[in-house]
């Protein structure tokens, strides 16, 4: 059965197969696209195709020893590098490039894949750049990134860019519904990831369902008065969203609620993130002006920017409630 990723990325697949068919394999590529669009899966497919012993119709046979070892990530001619912590460090890159200059255990092309390439620090990026300027032998580099603009322009210019398009939300929602997920939950999780497996896992987590409910209850509390909102932050929110990553996700979910309000107010034919709360959110749309909604959403975005600092997260949320209250008072 053909992978869902391959079906969603037909343009990318056609381009890679065509380059193989015409023997026009580049020495460096940048695969860029949102998280969950299948960049690593397709990079391994391409590696498999380039190393396959019996390719047929521009596709790997999937049964030769080479294909099987690529599938198990055990092929000596393929190296994958991931960030060490927050960055890809120069030491990693030096060791990585040294491996690529050694004689391979097997004949054929060497392929190296750099995951989250936007997280190379300046030293590691410059080390890679030097290698790209003077490619040696039968080698192909594939850089995977969610942020093309964060890649050095000098590296961009030496790579073929292949952009991955996310599947439509409606497609993802339908796929989740087929797995027994409610449309309301599917509409929410597909705003957080374009990867069907991640979305399904998230939709099935009781913890995430509790987070979602907590966010919507905070919207309700904020509509009542500032005291209710502050009390809710202290009594409930701070117990659910304890870590920085959790708080960041909570702020995203909160922002999406007010985006729904804006869409309802503007009578846009867009898919809601919280369709099960449309009645309440529509009441907010009738009550709040565009200026008020803009101020509230900017306050949430400001909190997201501040989250990276050392500010106490409960205090951050209390300050957000005060700032949102000011936004509600905008004329």
UniProtKB/TrEMBL annotation:
Q: Which positions carry the signal peptide feature in this UniProt record?
A: none
- State the InterPro entries in the record: DNA_pol_HolB, DNA_pol_III_delta_C, DNA_Rep/Repair_Clamp_Loader, P-loop_NTPase
EC assignment: the record states 2.7.7.7
All copies of domain DNA polymerase III delta subunit C-terminal, residue ranges: 240-325
Q: Which reaction does it catalyse?
A: DNA(n) + a 2'-deoxyribonucleoside 5'-triphosphate = DNA(n+1) + diphosphate
Q: Which Pfam families match?
A: DNA_pol3_delta2, DNApol3-delta_C
The keyword Transferase is assigned to this record: yes
Indicate what this protein is called per its UniProt record. DNA polymerase III subunit delta'
**Which species is listed as the source?**
Sporosarcina pasteurii (Bacillus pasteurii)
Q: What is the lineage of its organism?
A: Bacteria, Bacillati, Bacillota, Bacilli, Bacillales
Gene symbol here is: dnaX_2
